[in-house]
Structures are given as C-alpha cells and as structure tokens.
Amino acid sequence: MKIKDIVNRDIVTLTNCEHEPIHIPGSIQPHGFLLGLTADWKIDFVTANTEVFTGLSYTQIIGKDFSEVFGNAAQKNIEEYFLRDESQFVLPIETELLENKYQLTIHKSNDIYVLEAEPQFCEKEKLPDVYSQTIQFVAHMNNTRSLQELCAFVADGIQQVTGYDRVMIYRFDEDYNGEVFAENCREDLEPFLGLHYPHTDIPPQARELYLKNQLRLIVDLDYDPVPVFTTDDQDNKNLDLSLSILRSTSPIHVQYLKNMGVGATLTISLIHKDRLWGLIACHHYSAKNISPEIRLAAKLQGQFITSQIDLRQSTEEYQVARRTSLALEKLTGLDLPLGHEQFQTLVDSPYLLRLCNAAGVSISVGGVIYKNGITPDEDEIKNIVTAITNHTKEQTFTTKKLSGDFPQLNHHTDVAGVIFHALGSDDHIIWYRPQTISEIKWAGDPAKAIIKDSKGLHPRNSFNVWKQIVKNQSSTWLQPEINSAANYAHALHKQIIMLMLREEEEKYRSQSLVLKETNSELENINWISTHDLQEPLRKIQMIISKLLTEIDDVPAASVLESLQRVSKSANRMQILLEDILKYTRIKYTKDALQKINMNFIMESTLDEMKDVISENNVVIECESLPEIHGINFLMKQLFSNLLQNSIKYASAERDLVIKVTASQEPEINIYSNNVYCYWITFSDNGIGFDQQYADSIFKIFTRLHNQDEYKGSGVGLALCKKIMQTCGGNIRAEGKVGEGAAITVYFPCDPEDSLF
After folding, report:
1. What pLDDT band is residue 560 in, cutting at 50, 70 and 90?
2. CATH class in words for 337-435
3. Superfamily for 1-333+437-470?
4. What is the DSSP letter of 711?
5. In this protein, which residues make up the domain named Histidine kinase (predicted)?
C-alpha cells in the first residue's frame, strides 16, 4: 500500500496570495492528532504525530478499521455520540483511546468524518467559575446602553474567562477594513483601541472560513506543522479542513502575528445577517491553550454580541428616526400653493433638510431647478443627474463619496454625499452633504500589508500608527434618513403628477377656447374674402366673353390662345375658392374627409407643374400610391408644396431626381406613438439639411438659408404640416447635408378599420 502526504506546497506570491488555498493545508497544529474516517470506519487520513500520543505510528494506523486499532469500546462510544446529535457536532466527546483520555471534536468533511483528538484538559475545577461568570455576564449585559459599551463588556468578560493578554472586538466596514471597536488588555501593553487594519490583512478566503468555522485557535505560533498522510489511491486526493480546530495556519498569517509579537491566538467570528460583521481577536504573548469548555464559553459571549447588534443599533438610531419622522410629518402638513411657486416654498422649508439631516437640497421640476443650502450650481447638478442615470436604471441612488463613484464629475468641492430620487420624466430631488475631513489611524501603512523583497514574500513588520487624512467623503447616511427621503420623494412625485394634470387641464381648456375663437374668425374672414373675390372674377369672365365675340376684329391668333388660358385659370380659381368656402364651413370635422386616389392627385399635380419640371430638368420616379381619407384640394397643395420644395433646394452639381414611394402596411410611428396605415415618402438628391433641424423646418417662416441663396417665404412646409394635422396624420423629415432629403407623410387608418 502506497502512502503519501497531502501537504500543500504551492508557492504563495503577490499575485496569488489572495487565493491561497488555506482550507486544504494538508497539515495540522501539533497539540493534537487527526483521523479521517470513511463511512465504513476505515482510517483513510492520519497525521504524522500519532505516535507521540498513542504510541502507534501513522503507518501502523492508516488503511485499517478504527475498531482494529482503537477497540470496539471507543468505536461504540463515538457511534452513540453520532446517534445523539448527528446533524451538528458542537460539544467535544470525552473518550479513551489506547488507555489515554482524549476530547474528540468531530465534524464531517464531504464524505469523510474528521476526528480531532486533544489530550483531556485538567481544568475541570475551573468550570464552575466559568459558568458563574457567564451567568453574571448575561445578568449585567442589559445594563449597557450602546453597542460599543456591550462590546467593551464582552471584551472584559472574555479576558476574564480565557486569561488572554489582549481581547479585541474587531468590526468591519463595508469594504472589510477592520477597526478595533472595543478592547481589554494587560496594563503594560500598548492599547490598540481605535486602530484600523486594511482589508488585505484578512483576505477573502480567510473571511469565508470565518463564516464556516466560528472558532479558530492557534496554540503556539512557533509550531512545526504536522503533515496529513493518506493512501495513494487517487489523483489530487485531499481533505478539506475548513471546520477543523487543529487546521494548520497560512505561513503568511503566522509571520504576520509573529511580527506583532504574538505567541498564541483565539479568534471568534461575529456573524450578522449572514455576513462577517467582525471578530473577537484574543492575543497572548506566549504559547497558550484553553479547554473546549472555555472555548465554548467565549464563543457564547460572542454570540451575545451578534444577537444584540440589531437591537443596539436600532436604539442608537431611534432618535434619528424620531427626528426624521417629525420632519416628514411637518412637510406633508404644509399648506402649499397649487402652482410652481410651491417648490420654492418647499425647498426653503427647514424641514426638508431635517428630513435626512442634509446640508442642501435641490428639486428639478419641468426643467426648473429650485435649491437651498449647500448645493452645486445648476450645471453641476445636471452633470450629477446624468452620471447617476447613466450608472443605474434604479429610481434611487445613495452615496457618501460622490467623487469616488463618479471621478469624471467636476463636482462641487463642498459636496460629497447625495441621496437621489427620480420623480418621473426628467424631474428629481437630491439631498446633499458636505465632505467630512477625518483622520484614520492605521496599524501600519495599509499599502504595505504584503511586502516582497530579496528574501521573498512576507507580511509587514511595522505596526506603528500610520495616519491617513480622508477627504471627499461625507458622513454615512443612516437607514432612517434614507427611508424618510424615500417616503417624501414618493409623496412629492404624487404632488408633481397632480400639478401636471391640473396644468394639462388648464392648457386644454385654454386651447379649446382659442381654437373656437380662431375657427369662428377664420370662417368669417374666408367667407368675406371669397365673397369679395367672386365679383371681380365674374367681371373678368364677362370681358373675356365680350372679347371672344369680337375676335374677328382682333386677328392675332396668339391673343385668342392667351385669353382662353386666362378664362381657364379664372374658372379654376373660382372652383378653388368655392372649395375653400365649403371646407371652412365644415369646421374640420371627420365629415370633411373623403376617400381619395392619390395617383389621380399626383397626375393632376404633375400636369400643373409640367413647365417647372421641364425647365429644371427634374426626373420624377413615382410608384403606385394608395387610397387615403383626406381632402382633395389640400392633397393637391400638399403634393405641390413637397415637389416645389425639392426643386427649390436642388443641388447645382447634379440633375434632380425625386422618388415618390409608398406603403400600405400599418405601423406604429415612433415619433407620435400612433398607428398609421399609409405613408408616402418624397425623397430627393438635393442639398439636404442637418438632421438637428428636422423639426424646425416645419415651423412657419423658418428658413435654413438666406433669401439671396434660395427664394421663398418659409411657409411651404409649415402648410404641409398643417394639412397633415387637419387630416389626422403626421409628417417627418430626414436629411443629410450634401446628399438629399426625404419627407414622409403618414395617413390614418380608414374609419371603418378596427386596429385597436
């Protein structure tokens, strides 16, 4: 049978020390020995020091049945222990192995039962004192008023029970940097209270083990690791010692403690809400071991801390919560005006700052920013909002170090902390806090936690106080402050919605009145103008008719042709005016819309514009157009204006080509969020335009070029937009400078269609 040790001999470097596999060291501390048993009681793992404790070498033990080596009585004793509490082995079991008494700590590692044997302690006479001290501790625990007082009380109690030279309660921040939160030590020792330690002192894999195994003991830092042996029956065979009491320690951590002058340690995990909240770190300046009973008593006192964290923190935050609740009540009870002036009144209220103990606040509603207190200027506020909204899709964001989260911001130097709440659309509210310059005392330079020199990799050996000045960071926002801000932001959002609805109602009411008056006025003006124009047109026709009757006296054939064209034009003008009169009297109702074949409209328009088209060498490519619901003469005006617009802005470098394309497929227009069933596009290869002017070109009298370059009044496209609005449609333009433009008109679905 081949036997091999499983000692992990991987070289630890600066690049991999944070991933050192400390849970599988393949060795233990020498104050006990370890056996690894399979489910059928075969000894599959054994440490090299069994001969020291049992008189049998590991080669005599490995691979054999447990009862064959240690006897049936010992196996039966352990089996009864399994039956008593198989799910969790908390208390050690006292048993006799080869005529020597041991205390066995048992746990399961994957499929292996791990037995760790330590010689039985002879400190039973101290147990009554331990129990008495623990009972007294519980009785006086409730007399402490704060979490820090409780931690100091626990440090004193554990120091009395265990006898360690120094007991520290070590608390982590959100980044796992540690602070000595409470301490009890020998009078001749330099206190560490208030010192900070960088997160690199306890790397992630060590913190993971502290979550799994809540008690860690190093009896003598000068120990020589004892290797674990196993049968060589598979590749990469190993034993996870995460839950082990005897597990050997990382050589880097051993050297770190030696550099501090420490000889032995006891570490107890403080776990709160499934997170490593802190540690109870016990240091002794010589070798020291304690019995399992005393270990358990110390662990119990640590659990008293974790059980009280919520209660003590809640007590400390109660006054904050009471003040913020009072401010929220005052704010919601304010009698504010109904207009936008309410927001200035609101930000001027001291209760808005007291709500979350902020130094400044800003509210943005409808593009207007109202602010009070210590705040950035308006441009910086907009930059902050942009950075936050680009960073997260959430409606809220809280930070105490704005420059750390968004280094690209050239933010206000006095502002470091913010609570941001979106209020719909582009509206928001932000509370601000200034930076709090503070001094942190580190136990050594945190940047030199691990050092590499000519001798290799080792932890720092200097723990002299290293001071750091922290800037650009505000005090921490407490949970009651965050909650109050969220509650009021929700109420403010509702208030803004109500204001918007009221304003929209007023706007529509006002627009309705204006529209009614405008329609009435237009009807009167159109009626008068068309009535007055009919009389001179009739006179023109009479004169032309008379001239035609005397044509024999006027032999010029050209005069006859001209008069005929004048007559034809006059008739067409009369028809147009009659159509306008009919249209204005219909008052833009759906009854005005008729089914129109747009191919006929195009043919008629091209016929009227044939001279202009010919003179400018325009090529027009038109595909089949749909039937739509519209107004006949308005469609002619629409097509005429769109064609004239393309001709007006033709490029001098090439012949103008106008393409007219169409579709009858229903689509949702992304610009208006409406469904349209038909669209027609007029695209050309003219001079084009910059897309940023795609909306402004439809405004009346808007021109992108001066009068000397291109003639026109700026009414054409505005009229096209008005025509499409009248027909319930839409119009959009797309352009590229030097390449051309495309204008698309969208028509609504047939009244009888039921797409919704």
Report:
1. low
2. alpha beta
3. GAF domain (3.30.450.40)
4. -
5. 528-751
What is the rounded CA–CA span in Å between residue 416 and residue 431? Answer: 11
Provide the b/e sequence for 413-439 (b: ≥16 CB within 10 Å). Answer: eebbbbbbbbbeeebbbbbbbbbeeee
User: How far is Cα of residue 410 from the mean position of the Cα atoms in its chain?
Assistant: 21
Question: Residue 488 CA to chain centroid, in angstroms?
Answer: 21
Judged by DSSP in three states, 306 sits in helix
Q: Is the dihedral of CA 423, 426, 429, 435 positive or negative?
A: positive
Query: How many whole angstroms separate alpha carbon 309 and alpha carbon 563?
Result: 104
pLDDT score, position 583:
42
DSSP 8-state assignment for residue 654? S
- Half-sphere exposure (CA, 13 Å, Cβ side) for 66? 25
Tokens coding 302: 């640590």
- Classify residue 751 by burial, with Cβ atoms within 10 Å: 0-12, 13-18, 19+: exposed
- pLDDT tens, position by position, 655-673: 999 999 998 777 665 555 5
Burial 56-93 (b: 16+ CB within 10 A, else e): eebeebbeeebeebbeeebbebbeebeeeeeeebeebb
Angle at 376 between CA 375 and CA 378, to 5 degrees: 115
Task: Pull the structure tokens for residue 715.
Answer: 């009414």
Q: Report the DSSP beta bridge partners of residue 167.
A: 184, 282
Strand partners, 247: 28
What is the three-class DSSP state of 289? coil
Residue of 529, 572, 519, 578 whose CA lies nearest to 726: 519
Per-residue model confidence as pLDDT tens digits over 635-655: 888 898 899 889 988 988 899
* Integer Cα distance of 695 and 681 in angstroms: 17
DSSP letter at 126?
Answer: G
Q: Is the pLDDT of residue 170 over 50?
A: yes
Joined tokens for residue 687: 């001079």
Question: 591-747 belongs to which homologous superfamily?
Answer: Histidine kinase-like ATPase, C-terminal domain (3.30.565.10)
**First-last CA distance in the chain:** 82
Nearest alpha-carbon partner for 367 in 500, 232, 177: 500
